[in-house]
Amino acid sequence: MQGIQIRKWTLQDRDALVALFAAADRRFLSDRLPDPYTEKDADFWLRRVCEQDGAAGIFRAVTVGDVVAGSVSIEQKEDVYRKDADIGYFLVGAQWSKGIMTEAVRQACDAAFQQLDIVRITGAVYAPNLASRRVLEKNGFTLEGTLRSGVFKDGRLQDLCLYGKLKGPDAG
Length: 172
Ligand SMILES: CC(C)(COP(=O)(O)OP(=O)(O)OC[C@H]1O[C@@H](n2cnc3c(N)ncnc32)[C@H](O)[C@@H]1OP(=O)(O)O)[C@@H](O)C(=O)NCCC(=O)NCCS
What we know:
Domain N-acetyltransferase: 4-169
Number of helices: 4
Oligomer: single chain
CATH superfamily: Gcn5-related N-acetyltransferase (GNAT)
Strand order of the largest sheet: 1-2-3-4-5-7-6
Protein name: GNAT family N-acetyltransferase
Bound molecules: coenzyme A
InterPro entries: Acyl_CoA_acyltransferase, GNAT_dom
Radius of gyration: 16 Å
Pfam families: Acetyltransf_3 (PF13302)
GO molecular function: acyltransferase activity, transferring groups other than amino-acyl groups
């Protein structure tokens, strides 16, 4: 598919971000995300990521033909975990299964390994989220372990799969 890009968020993306969350499938997302997601929530987050992009993380809009269709973030951890970073992403349902997030994650990992002082990226995925697991596997992430019943979401316990990708040409 042509025209899949990741670009930095700007303060002008408030409406696009609110629309994205309104259309988001939350089954596999954290309960910490405000619901409903308001303009105030968007302004707060955009201010933070515009300040921190490239220093504490890579925070990007995923665009298809210049239209914002999703989000991908790679956020550096702190303390003794600071050489590691957590990846998270989502895409509007209308664009699923076209290879878009696989390409966006590829671009985001490249940018993160270039710009952040990290040696690995971690992806934590609820076990039933097969599409997300495929996105990581297609990007060279390795399943490193499973936290059994590590997630309680929508009244249901789920396993949490921990994936990792190391920096470097030979790294999985
Ligand atoms: C997960 C998500 C980002 C995937 O984005 P996407 O652009 O559709 O992903 P891609 O098209 O690049 O790749 C999806 C892969 O999963 C596969 N897939 C999709 N649904 C599947 C299912 N129900 N079972 C098994 N595989 C599935 C696709 O076939 C494809 O693999 P393939 O290329 O080997 O055929 C998107 O579904 C989403 O936003 N989900 C809701 C939010 C979310 O779960 N975020 C991740 C939290 S960890």
